[in-house]
Write a structure and sequence with these properties.
Length: 313
């Protein structure tokens, strides 16, 4: 069995834990057919009733689901999103997350490649879970979180009262939403506590230096080509300018690359998203754009959790 098939088996049998007589909706495109075929093979082996929905290029970018597609989502026990990642399709992705967690469970894999499957999905999910739990224990309820790096990042905020999620590869129960590859912990900062400057190396699959300036949880200034493009897409929608997420990468095989699905999982990185908080904070928005900060130092009060990209716990 080759590496892709091994990873697909782990995704189906361990992560999604598909069972006999469950209904599985697999949404893909021509760019990701090799991955979709591997997932479909193992979902069939698991005994799940599998429906593959091929998104043609002539219908893209897609922003809203059709009536028939909505019916498919409402009937699915589990769904997988395996599409080429495109900024214009964020609202469609948002619909799928909401529908998937309402009616079943969903695995989101925007921009996934066969190489990423082999390197980052065919891993020990138990070890991934343990690392995530250690970090959550250190950060749970913290009222003074500071993130810095030598590029000029200095941001300070509270996560007091906020729920943490451990993206450990477990998407086996109704109501769950997760990524493959897995490997991050995340929550929503307390919005009004979020102040300072973030210097990023990547935003939403766009490599390049950029700066985001925040005051009381709102984006007040920015620079960088990738950020400018995203802000043009957000337009006048103020919900797209509010901090929605803070996450830390925990997948040891992940690298910084022009694919946020992988880059945000890399050790020694943090990511901050503007827009929707996925119910973890107060902001609801059709937008959600992750920005990566690398080689971070992270403190909780006077305790060092990460020192220049190296875990201290």
């Amino acid at each position: 069995m080759n590496g892709l098939m091994q990873a697909a088996e782990k995704a189906v049998r361990q992560s999604l834990a598909l069972k006999k007589d469950e209904s599985f909706l697999l949404v893909t495109d021509i760019h990701k057919l090799e991955i979709a075929e591997a997932l479909a093979l193992w979902s069939k082996e698991a005994g799940a009733e599998t429906t593959t929905y091929l998104m043609t290029e002539t219908l893209r970018p897609i922003t809203t689901p059709t009536v028939m597609f909505k019916r498919l989502c409402e009937q699915a026990s589990a769904m997988a999103y395996v599409l080429d990642a495109r900024i214009e399709e964020k609202p469609f992705r948002g619909y799928m997350v909401k529908a998937g967690t309402t009616h079943g469970r969903i695995c989101m894999m925007p921009g996934l490649t066969a190489d990423m499957m082999e390197r980052l999905v065919n891993i020990d999910f138990g070890e991934l879970d343990q690392q995530g739990q250690k970090l959550i224990m250190a950060l749970q309820g913290a009222d003074d979180v500071q993130v810095e790096n030598q590029a000029g990042t200095h941001i300070r905020f509270s996560v007091k009262g906020r729920t943490w999620k451990n993206d450990n590869g477990d998407i086996s129960r109704k109501g769950q939403h997760g990524n493959l590859p897995a490997g991050e912990i995340f929550t929503a900062p307390v919005e009004e506590s979020f102040n300072g400057r973030i210097v990023i190396s990547l935003i939403d699959d766009k490599l390049g230096h950029g700066v985001l300036e925040f005051s009381e949880g709102r984006l007040k200034g920015y620079e960088g080509d990738g950020i400018t493009e995203i802000m043009a897409h957000i337009g006048d929608d103020e919900t797209g300018r509010i901090i929605g997420e803070f996450g830390i990468g925990t997948n040891p095989g992940a690298c910084i690359c022009p694919n946020m699905l992988e880059a945000e999982k890399a050790h020694g990185t943090a990511h901050f998203a503007i827009g929707d908080s996925y119910g973890l904070g107060r902001n609801a928005s059709p937008h959600h754009y992750d920005a990566l900060v690398d080689k971070i130092s992270l403190r909780v009060g006077d305790r060092i959790i990460i020192d220049q990209g190296e875990f201290c716990i």
